[in-house]
Automatic annotation (TrEMBL):
Domain Glycosyl transferase family intervals: 175-344
Name of one Pfam family that matches: Transgly
Swiss-Prot/TrEMBL keywords: Antibiotic resistance, Carboxypeptidase, Cell membrane, Cell shape, Cell wall biogenesis/degradation, Glycosyltransferase, Hydrolase, Membrane, Multifunctional enzyme, Peptidoglycan synthesis, Protease, Transferase, Transmembrane, Transmembrane helix
GO molecular function, one term: penicillin binding
Pathway(s): Cell wall biogenesis; peptidoglycan biosynthesis
Lineage of producing organism: Bacteria, Pseudomonadati, Pseudomonadota, Gammaproteobacteria, Oceanospirillales
Record InterPro entries: Beta-lactam/transpept-like (IPR012338), Glyco_trans_51 (IPR001264), Glycosyltr_51/Transpeptidase (IPR050396), Lysozyme-like_dom_sf (IPR023346), PBP_1b (IPR011813), PBP_transglycosylase (IPR036950), PCN-bd_Tpept (IPR001460), UB2H (IPR028166)
Protein's recorded name: Penicillin-binding protein 1B
Location of the protein in the cell: Cell membrane
Occurrences of domain Bifunctional transglycosylase second (ranges): 81-162
Length: 766
């Protein structure tokens, strides 16, 4: 008993000691693990901290600096509507629709128009350009016998009204993104409310991430065994768009979370939602990625963002979930379904009444007409880029969101493109040998020289080869008006002066050059105005021979020909090679009667804060008097009256205009110059392979000009001549001023001092 009793304490003590040893060992292990864990955590926190510090720098530098590489925007000239100008009601209706105005019951809201049987009213938008701020205006337009009358609401007569400049394209350089930048104050509140309600209803309460959203997405994705739902906040979406790639890894997700927290730490909710509005990707348009709600509004609806309706806001917000999937241009029914889902969310959240909801889900999707997009202006944008390349580098144009204001007239540009396509198609249908016929067209403001339209191809879409700039071809008889100008400038010749239309031979090197008239006939002694109007080659070369070929060459250079050439007799009949753009510049001093000599493209460049960066001013210097230029222009009005442009006069009998046709050897080129009170227009038709054609200037290019002019409501040339010039009735067979009763007379313009000194009453008593 004693033995057993003595052993029990010993066993118990041994067990206790063993447990104490194990506990001590375990404590030592945890102590060591904690120690090493802390040490490892400390060591690991260094690169982690450096990484977070680096991410913080990325967040701040990108957000504070250049957030977006935004291409420069190119704008048209404002459309000026003038009382007294020829207008049809249907034409103005179409113009308002094309510029994004919506028709309703009234025009009380900016951007809206209304119509009655005889009148239109419109609340024209305000705008800012290089000339300053232009207030919105509500105007009433009436039409009486095809003439426009503009009135204010109180009935006061208004001289003119302006439709704001239209954005016609971008200058990308190497950039392929399209954006329009908004400030927070410019974001429509309904759009903000819809975006937050649908994409992140807790946006104003979280710190950049939503733990409940992440947990909910995790449960759904695990249940389906695939990624079915995202837990991203608007902040996380912005981070993904601005900073990260599209890969899906845990590292990228962790980066996204940390950057979102940092973004919320540094910036306000207003800053973040504004950046999101400008950054979100909404569509792919050709090679251009469409970013931001403002750019999407213009692309899909053709109107500013602040003029959209609730259902249109809902459509854009719905596209955020899948820009390609819900693109209304490609999948209109799917886009409408998605839009209605957004409207349903708004209804369930009490943001949309049941009545409004039922009305809005029935609304069709009305998109802008895509025919008015870049393809119409591609050739003009070439010209803009060419001019700006002298003053701005490509990277600046492609990234600084400059606003470039040009002189393009959207009505003239569209009319020119359509006229070229229609008439070339008609010519090809009439003669299969003309298949592949190409063309170019340059339209300038007659007075200012501003380029209003440019067409570089007869193709329907922008081809990349701009023949208005690049097709350098012989100009044929278009050389004649400058030649006659050089004769008039001597003071020894007038339009009444007679010259022999006879065959001449010229020795050119070792060859003999013997020109012929187009009809292969000679016409004897003719007046200069007849020789020019009927495009007599022999009379023209005879005149050039009299005044000297070098004088003709000097006149061409003085009028603006910068391309080097050597003057020889054939040059006087159009062997000179120029592009259509160069021909337009050659004729500008004549068309403007000395008011302009250079052609203008860009008017001004402004930054995104509407500060003027550069204004483009053109110098006008022509070493000819306004009087001799005006007399030359007046002489060109005889071409549609008695000469090779009579078809144009027959088509436009009430229009007073100047013209000249041109046809080169073997009819390889068809040219036409037409000058009205508004525009000076150059048209060229030809084959890229420079083969003979079955058309002349009269039967080809003239048809394009007639089509164009018929669609732009052109006005007649002013009858008044500048100081130093006068118009007189002169007998055809005697150099005398003729009374009204005289029969064989013609009205001609003269430089004062060269007109007839004698007069006749044509009264005979016997």
């Amino acid at each position: 008993m004693a033995k057993n009793t003595s052993k029990k304490p010993i066993r118990k003590s041994s067990t206790k000691r063993k447990k104490t040893t194990q506990l001590s060992t375990l404590k030592s292990f945890f102590r060591a693990a904690f120690k090493w864990g802390c040490l490892l955590a400390l060591v690991a926190s260094v690169p982690f901290s450096i990484w977070v510090w680096w991410l913080n720098g990325q967040v701040v530098s990108r957000f504070e600096g250049q957030k977006w590489q935004v291409p420069s925007e190119v704008y048209s000239a404002p459309i000026i509507l003038k009382s007294g100008a020829p207008w049809k009601k249907a034409d103005l209706e179409r113009l308002l629709e094309e510029t994004g105005y919506r028709f309703g019951r009234n025009s009380q809201k900016v951007g809206w128009a209304a119509r009655s049987r005889t009148k239109l009213s419109a609340h024209l938008r305000s705008y800012v350009d290089h000339l300053g701020f232009h207030e919105s205006q509500r105007r009433i337009f009436s039409f009486y016998r095809g003439v426009l009358q503009i009135n204010a609401l109180n009935g006061d007569a208004i001289d003119e009204a302006r439709i704001e400049p239209q954005r016609i394209g971008f200058l990308y350089g190497g950039n392929t993104e399209s954006r329009q930048i908004l400030t927070y104050d410019q974001i429509p509140q309904p759009l903000l409310d819809i975006l937050v309600a649908v994409e992140d209803k807790d946006f104003y309460h979280h710190w950049g991430i939503s733990l409940t959203g992440i947990a909910r997405a995790l449960v759904v994705n695990l249940a389906h065994g695939a990624r079915r739902q995202g837990g991203s906040t608007l902040t996380q979406q912005l981070v993904k768009n601005m900073y990260l790639s599209s890969e899906r890894t845990y590292t990228r997700k962790l980066t996204e979370v940390i950057m979102s927290l940092l973004l919320e730490f540094h910036y306000s909710k207003q800053d973040i939602i504004t950046a999101y509005m400008n950054e979100v990707y909404l569509a792919q348009v050709g090679n251009s990625a469409l970013h931001g709600f403002a750019a999407a509004s213009q692309h899909f609806f053709g109107r500013p963002l602040n003029e959209l309706n609730i259902d249109e806001f809902a459509l854009l917000v719905g596209m955020v979930k899948g820009p390609s999937l819900y693109n209304p241009q490609r999948s209109p029914e799917r886009a409408k379904t998605r839009r209605n889902v957004v409207l349903t969310v708004l209804n369930h959240q009490g943001r949309l009444s049941q009545g409004d909801y039922q009305s809005l889900i029935k609304q069709p999707i009305r998109l802008a007409d895509k025919k008015r997009e870049r393809t119409v202006y591609g050739d003009y944008l070439d010209l803009v880029a060419m001019q700006l390349s002298r003053d701005f580098d490509e990277n600046t144009l492609a990234s600084e969101n400059l606003k470039i204001y040009t002189g393009v007239d959207i009505r003239a540009q569209r009319a020119a493109s359509q006229a070229m396509q229609r008439q070339v198609a008609n010519l090809e249908r009439g003669d299969r040998h003309l298949l592949g016929l190409q063309g170019a067209m340059v339209v300038t403001d007659r007075v200012s020289g501003q380029v209003r339209a440019i067409v570089g191809s007869s193709d329907q879409y922008y081809t990349g080869f701009n023949r208005a700039l690049g097709a350098v071809r012989p100009i044929g008889s278009l050389v004649k008006p400058p030649l006659y100008l050089s004769a008039l400038a001597t003071g020894r010749y007038t339009w009444w002066t007679k010259v022999e239309d006879e065959r001449l031979r010229f020795k050119v090197g070792s060859d003999i050059w013997a020109p012929e008239n187009y009809d292969r006939r000679v016409h004897g002694e003719v007046h200069l105005y007849e020789a020019m109007a009927k495009s007599y080659n022999l009379a023209t070369i005879s005149l050039a021979n009299q005044i000297g070929f070098d004088r003709v060459g000097d006149a061409l250079r003085q009028l603006g020909v910068k391309r080097p050439f050597t003057m020889h007799p054939a040059m006087a009949l159009g062997a000179l090679e120029l592009s259509p753009f160069e021909v337009s510049r050659l004729y500008q001093p004549i068309a403007s009667q000395g008011q302009s000599s250079e052609l203008g493209v860009v008017l001004a460049v402004m930054d995104q804060n509407n500060r003027l960066i550069k204004r483009f001013n053109r110098q006008t210097h022509v070493p000819f008097t306004d009087a001799v230029l005006a007399v030359t222009l007046d002489g060109m009005t005889k071409t549609p009256e008695i000469g090779t442009a009579r078809a144009a006069k027959a088509a436009l009998p009430n229009l007073t205009f100047a013209a000249k046709t041109g046809t080169t050897n073997q009819q390889k080129d068809s040219w036409y110059i037409g000058i009205t009170g508004d525009y000076s227009t150059t048209v060229w038709l030809g084959d890229d392979d420079n083969v003979p054609l079955s058309i002349t200037g009269s039967s080809g290019a003239q048809k394009v000009w007639i089509d164009f002019t018929s669609h732009v409501n052109s006005t007649s040339l002013p009858s008044r001549l500048p100081s130093g010039a006068g118009r007189f009735q002169v007998l055809n067979d005697s150099f005398e001023k003729a009374a009204d009763r005289c029969d064989d007379k013609v009205s001609l313009a003269f430089v004062l001092g060269t007109e007839p000194k004698k007069s006749t009453s044509c009264f005979w008593p016997f």
